[in-house]
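Reading a protein record of the kind used here takes only a little practice. Each token is a code from a learned vocabulary of local backbone shapes. With that in mind, consider the following protein and its fold in token form:
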Amino acid sequence: MEYMKAVVVTAPGEVTVREDVPKPVLGEYECLIRVHACGFCNGTDLQIIRGTGGDLGNGVSIYPTVLGHEGAGEVIAVGSKVRHIQVGERWIHPNLYPNVGNGYTKTHGSMAEYGMISDNQAMLEDGYKEADFPWVKQHRFPEWMSYEDAGVLLSLAESHSTARNIGAAPGKEILIYGAGPMGLALALFCTLEGASVTQIDSHDDRLERAVRIAKVGTVINRRKENVDERLKGREFDVVVDCVGQSGILYEGSQRLKNNGTVVSVGVLKKDDLQIDSSRLKANTSLKMLNFPVGEYAIMDETIELIRTGVVNPKDFYSHVLPYEEINRAADLVRTRAALKVILSFKE
């Protein structure tokens, strides 16, 4: 058995690099990926490290677990029945099997030296069904895109799909709580769809980014300003929580127009998973998008916006660190000193 290095959460509050994680062994429809970069998710990854994320029943938060779902790498080997994926291609979301081996589980497992994708088209041609695919969430990205930029591609596509799912369009007024990387990206895609966006956060530098990058019309620093006084009774078609707090959903729903929608995008903590619908404004809808819908279907469109310069991935991360500095990366995110960190797996 061969081994590889990987970022592993060993217990709540403990994350480190281990060198005894089994290197994946290819099946006949699988491709081996050499991971070059992986985005650190400010929501999911940080909560798994802290031990505050809810167990989804699929190995998530069952320690020790290999972290990461925003990986980007290149194909270095293919299985005997792979026909539609070539060595040298670049793909995001390399994955591992749930039973990684040697006692490890995986939380998608992209923060490792190696991962896998599958040739799902070949499997269909050979009589398999989608339920048989080892992995569905994977996507090719072009050679002109750097691995570091690709480390934020999934987040961008998730935000792009969210803008579509909440109905961002000309004439729509949208209020977004949170100006982290997801909140900023969502604001950008909403304005690109023609919606009018107002954004609330507690950090001036992030709100400045919202104005500069996403062309947000109104920004409010709730630490320094009275939100009610700034809004002066304005009501919105959609209010989005990109922070991950049920209290924001309750507060935000009160700022909705009649028949408006409050949207949960931020990752809720395991002790904050139940929502009391009686605290939401009457005649409003609650939309749960904590887990994105349609992000891979819209990925090519997102890539085209990047190619044409409409979207710049570098606007949505602030630091690139070697993966060995995982604890520093987590601290930078935890203290808001970093907008987003990309971990590099370069040799």
Observations:
- DSSP finds ten helices and 17 strands in the chain.
- Residues 33 and 75 are 5 Å apart (CA to CA).
- The chain has a mean pLDDT of 94.
